[in-house]
């Protein structure tokens, strides 16, 4: 049940050299900015100015190798960057992909792909914000995906539909997972899925259509339809048929980063809950004197501190050059549970004012609820841990 | 804040210690502990187990080598206690031998250290009792009523202590008593002193120990002092500073008992997963039901998380950093995690887990006590609210 001995380091300073400038950057995007976006029609809700500021800041080149113009920082630093953004009224889902999707190119891309894309991504000239994975009929069951890529001559032809592709209209390139061959009899049903790099402007003129989904909160998500979309042979990332393995690696990184986002949200909520509880006077004293108010805040805070440690652990495993596996799932699960409890404590502390948009509690609270389901749902995370860490059977 | 780094191992740290402890524990299977529970309170102390552990030297883990101990950091002690529990045994009857001496080590005189620590390290003297709690004060420690009145050549102790574990099996006890009346000190934490009491002599001088029969084998007692004389050199450190002395020790205690709780969680989960995978109902393994599997996984994730906080707290203690928040958080996280493990274990085993011969019900009861003692979760939440989050004192 335990891994070989790895060290975990914790600095009391905890990367303030990254946190301070990020907080300053985020302070240019106050709550009103985010509230106003929600008043816009669906196609104008993307936080363009915020995304521009973040991407041009260079922080999101953290995981790209120095040879390609990136900062080549540990995953732990990438997590700190996201945690810090989420501890403010801001939300990083509009740019999250830029942080981790390029790692698939770094690990599995050809030299030509790396040279063409990574320097431009690192410089913020090319955006890599979207991954087309989920489908209407399959969802988490990737082996059942219907989108096909067929080799015709020297190019691939894509047909199918993808759902819930975040930020598809705001990205230059996109990761696409499609089936290129049937899974071998008795083998891994996910064999035969292939990862492609899609040039979005070209694809829009060449057989890809998109439809925006109006959703509870600003996910800027789209349904994509591929109708004989032609991709060049060199759009394949790594080896054809191995896309699922690459996706799993990405998903582990994404889990660790999402855990950091959730922990940042927790920091936002605990600060907000504490200051409101200390200011709000009912029955002649601040409501924070009531254990009914104070204990849920303290309890959730303790859970958040635990969740942060398991997030650190997952990142430490990755930074030691190993696969975090189910520890990444645990990090995301625990961080989202803790964030949900912290959000709820903050919500209760604010009473009726929690519903008032000007307090930002309800907006962030919706953010946190989404993270319990996406990108990896709780049930899939628990199954991953049960099967891979605890040796229990697949239950579905 | 000054920049400091702590570092700790993930996984099975101190593998040689763990191996050695596990070897001893193998000789004390569930039937041994079941048998003890069938004895009257006075005969329920696991003497053979405690003797065996003492002989190996594991209980002297935290005593410096110059006094004959192993000279390990708190984390080393934690690994020992965790393993004892992960093997299905219980360190409760003897863990205090490991850490109660810390107060003597940190605050005792050179003579006291020379006189007691080598014998404690060898196991010739048992220092396993810690006399703090009283019937009317409990967690409100500074209000304790037991008095130590200075008389010629010593002190007269008057008062009562309760829930004093292992007092009947200990040669020495650390006792907290008020030396200056509460109305004559500025802060209520002042005027309280720590004494190292020779139990045999105190009994001769009138100290009375009565066992308390409890849900689980605590070997706990109540102790009555009716003007019991103890010699002057029983005082540890300076008079009136006892409260601060024991607070130092409490953080170490919280790290250590939290690691026992982690060990219990591992023991329960191992048994539960094995049973859930082997038990076949409705034509498939019990564990292929998500209601079972997900509950086990949730408990496991909580346990892994709590384990990290325990390691962090111990690393901070060992680095000489303030670790009150982390030690308290370890306590509450490990307590909640082990309770999740214990509940799912009982659910998975069903009636079989209730049998007296099953260690599931024994460990389930033990797990519940981890959520009450040695500190109440409410006091932990108070600590976090007041000292970490800046909320007011609510009690």
Q: How would you describe this protein?
A:
The complex is a heterodimer of chains A (396) and B (395). Chain A is α+β, with helices and mostly antiparallel strands. Chain A folds into three domains: 16-127, Butyryl-Coa Dehydrogenase, subunit A, domain 1; 130-241, Butyryl-CoA Dehydrogenase, subunit A, domain 2; 245-388, Butyryl-CoA Dehydrogenase, subunit A, domain 3 (Up-down Bundle), CATH 1.20.140. Chain A has 13 helices and ten strands. Chain A has helices spanning 16-26, 31-39, 48-57, 75-86, 96-100, 102-108, 111-122, 200-204, 243-279, 291-319, 326-350, 361-371, 378-388, and strands at 6-11, 128-132, 148-152, 155-166, 173-179, 193-199, 208-212, 221-232, 281-282, 285-286. Chain A has a four-stranded antiparallel beta sheet, with no helix packed on it. Chain A starts with 5 loop residues before the first strand and ends in an 8-residue tail after the last helix. Chain B has three domains: 15-126, Butyryl-Coa Dehydrogenase, subunit A, domain 1 (Orthogonal Bundle), CATH 1.10.540; 128-240, Butyryl-CoA Dehydrogenase, subunit A, domain 2, CATH 2.40.110.10; 244-388, Up-down Bundle (Butyryl-CoA Dehydrogenase, subunit A, domain 3). In chain B, 48% of the residues lie in helices and 16% in strands. Chain B has helices at residues 15-25, 30-37, 47-56, 74-86, 95-99, 101-107, 110-122, 199-204, 242-278, 290-318, 324-349, 359-369, 377-388; strands at 5-10, 127-131, 147-151, 154-165, 172-178, 192-198, 208-211, 220-231, 235-236, 280-281, 284-285. At the A-B interface, β1, α9, α10, α11 and α13 of A face β1, α9, β11, α10 and α11 of B.
